[in-house]
Records
---
Amino acid sequence: MNPELGQVALILALLLSGLQCLLPIIGAWRGSKPLMATAPTLAIGQAVFVALAFGILMWSFWINDFSVAYVAQNSNLSLPWFYKLSAVWGAHEGSLLLWMLILNGWTVALVVLGGKLPEAFFARVIGVLGFVAFGFLLYMITTSNPFLRLFPVPPNGADLNPVLQDPGLVFHPPTLYMGYVGFSVAFAFAIASLLGGELKSTWVRWARPWTNVAWGFLTLGIVAGSAWAYYELGWGGWWFWDPVENASFMPWLIGAALIHAQAITDKRDGLRAWTLLLSIFGFAFSLLGTFLVRSGLLTSVHAFAFAPSRGIFILVYLAVVVGGSLLLYALRAPKVTGGKSFALASRETLMVIGNLMLTVACAMVLLGTLYPLVGEALDIGRISVGPPYFGPLFLILMTPLVLALPFGPLSRWGKADLKVWRNALIRIVALAVTAGIIGFIVGARGGYQLLGITAAVWVMAGVAMFAIKRWREAPRGKRYPFEMLGMMLAHFGIGVFIAGAILTTSMSVEQDVSMKPGANVDVGAYDFHFNGVTETQGPNYRAQQGTVVITRNGKHVVTLHPQKRTYSGGQVQTEAAIEAGVFRDLYVSLGDSIGDGAWSLRVYDKPFVRWIWGGGVLMMLGGFAVVLDRRFRLKRAVEPETVHAKPEAEAPRKLAEGEA
Amino acid sequence: MNPVRKRRLIITLLILGAVGVATTLSVFALQKNMTYLYSPTEVDAGNAPGGHPFRLGGIVKEGSVHRVPGTLTTDFVITDRFQSIPVSYTGILPDLFRVGQSTITTGKLENGKFVATQVLAKHDSTYMPPQVEQAIAKAEKEHRVPKTAQGGGAP
């Protein structure tokens, strides 16, 4: 198939997206049903053309069409087929196309599932998504066309960056983008409600499942990226506070805050303006993330070569989207007031504290990430801000959140029963301290380890107590609705994550050693025996492969084969060998030959490292579970008037849930 | 006070408190944890802080990489094509560390030698960190040497 067809498809998609932005919104404004009715057709049409372009690019990779510059730069005849296909999003242009495809996926999902939304509101939502799509398509066509031809056609491609030749490439970018782009739906809902001047906050209930799914995907994307960095970058770190990681972490923090703010708005009608603001910022940070990764402004493992035109375009786009949204917010939001009042001791207050800590943490990360740019602009030198800034500050900011976390679900809306708090506090403290003591007896030493155990149990005990409370108080069959189950899963995931993060950091044994064949080294309770290095051959690389036999108390545990690969393009890539386990990972990566037959090796014993990602996966499942709740099933098509009347009619039911 | 005002007051105070604490902490932490990047020329001119960690960026000079036998220590020279600084690093070098490639090292100056605790090389082998590029450009400008005389500075 002809790559120019892909280009044409993109241009057609651009035109359709422009129409998708204009027609439904004008229709909603004028109250014209025919114009509003164009929304689904335009959205699906645009999706078809973007999918076509994506398919053509993938096809070009499949048939090794090196006349396409993007293919020539990122593929190679000897590249295995699954990397050929995922190389589509291995660099700048293609990953934008993936971004677009996913945006269209979300829009089509909205068309299919959101048909019962009020017509005008639905038209505005689709219109706003059309605007987002228009910006990105314009960006792609003007600055980052993936279908540019190359002449003369090279006989072979330059090969995919070896770091990317890993199953991580297949999962990490698509899931991360699902999350990034998913926030555009919450954003579109918020903007649509502002555009329509909705005084009621019914839209928040419609937006909640979408936000939860997006956040779930973002969590998964970050987990996949972290795990990938862990085994691919060759030194066993799982989080680096790298600008690009921060770029994905900021929308995650805002997303977590948004999920809770939406819950308050949905159930208590409070914090409406805040929810609107977070919806805008959630998406703004997704855009900023794309901007930071793609512009190459910041030095990072992810940075591509810097192209000023690209950076400026995204900067302008960001300014238009964020500035426009905030202007709209400033004009319309003052009308949005009300909500049920709440006492100082209430579930709302705890959730507001959580929200504050999450947003402040996001601001802290933003400051640290952008500070080097500011420093450069003010000419005070080239600065870098690293883990010593982010780590301790993040810990400090999250402490109040973790302390408050068990009590949120246990307290009532409006006004918490202080007796319940006291009883819960006594039990949770007792459990956490007991866990600390048990940890000490089992052999945990050092304040940090004990802190990790107590903090994790603190959170988990809160979840367990909530589960017991529901079991006792709620009637059978209504004990754990999906919304609650999601909350419990995610909160428990935080406990698991805390245990993993703090225990790994404090208990890992990491050594860089030089070893000759036959040499031994002790790492923790394990004995690592080095059996030398042999040559082996892969599909598109040759590798020096080490053999390391690991024993414990004389018993064979595992034999690991770390590799140092040299790819056909000449790039060198270390492949760590990892024995993964629930309670510990054993990690070996091969350094260099340092003469006399000796090699440098990294040998690690990393306890509980899997819990970090396990916790993340639980959080993701929590986000997904919420969607299944009956609360979010849309009723039959309703006219705007009846929608506005709905909350009152439902008030008794809401109150009952609120008390839960 | 009516409940709405009271709630607003609570929220406002919470926000102000959190923002205040966070700003103080962040500024304090930023000041303590920033590391500056210098080019060899700047280090040679005595601009770099003595005794404090900083980053040294430049190109790994051709023929300068030597391993200390039997240890993980590697000695090499980082240059911006005008001045050069000897560097010593103990540990495993990144995959993309190569002669003639740009790199950024973090460490301290001790007796005229830069003792690095971290060595970074870019994953994209055709990529030069903008910081290094600018350091080189700056050195070039100060020496008023035409760009062609740079002699394969950029890979």
Note: Strands of chain B lie at 34-38, 54-60, 66-67, 73-79, 84-90, 102-110, 113-121.
---
Amino acid sequence: MERLIIEATKSTPYIFFDPEANLLRIKGESYPENAARFYTPVFLWLEEYLSLQNPNQITVDLELPYLNSSSSKALMNLFEMLEDAVGSGYQVLVNWRYDDEDELSLECGEELQGDAPSLTFDFIPHVK
Amino acid sequence: MGFDLLNFHRELAKQGIIFCFRGPVSQQVIEGIGQTLRQKMELEDAGMTTVKKVFTIFVEQMQNVVNYSAEKVGEDELSDGELRVGVLVVGREDNRFYVLCGNSVLKEQTERIKNRLDVLREMNEEQLKAFYRERRKMGASLDSKGAGLGFIDMARKAGRPMEYGFAPLDNQHEFFSIKVVI
């Protein structure tokens, strides 16, 4: 299976999904005009990846300083897929990276954690 | 000259208006103005959280125009079809930022918008948070191009209940305006 790499734009994040490293990385601001359309290839890739692998540990590395409401919905859908994966034996670790002065980003991560209780979250502040 | 630009310019400044836009809104317009707006606020030493709240409301308002404004012009090569027209004002009053946005809507949509906003106006912070999370967990509603979460997100970032109004434009349309004070 190929890696999924999508370069960042002003309003869409960098996507780097590596099936060999079992790493899903999304980095950057996300407020595309149509979030459902932007994230469709991401969902499709993840669906295929989960169907091909034996259950293992997945690291989800997220650095999302700004998500518009429809991107936040898309991320929730992604987490729901990962929660299903946990149900079938995967372990999922989410690294939530945020600027230590950005209380809204921390809050956003904590709410996602609350709504995806079977994923393990690690909150990683970075200091400027 | 029919239009007094200098007077317009002075009036905007007097009213504490930082930004004013009227015209077709595209994703590129949102990215460009959004970036400049953040720079301007950072230069004024607005805190990170305030800047982000204003930016969030700005993006949701402008994307509402792109998705729902009933006033359209031409064809845009970069998006699905035509461009939608709206008006946006970002300003400062009593030391608080506000975002004011308006666009034409079809008369039959007004009831639904009113109902949605009235529900949010009655909610406190905790209720808005719970409502947002509940709606995010649900599938997107079929008539919604966004996730239907935009208004709730705006209400959560607002410092007080969002004000809105409708004014008649013609037989089929009303002008919808919404003011969010951060």
Note: Helices of chain B lie at 5-14, 27-43, 48-68, 110-121, 125-137, 150-157.
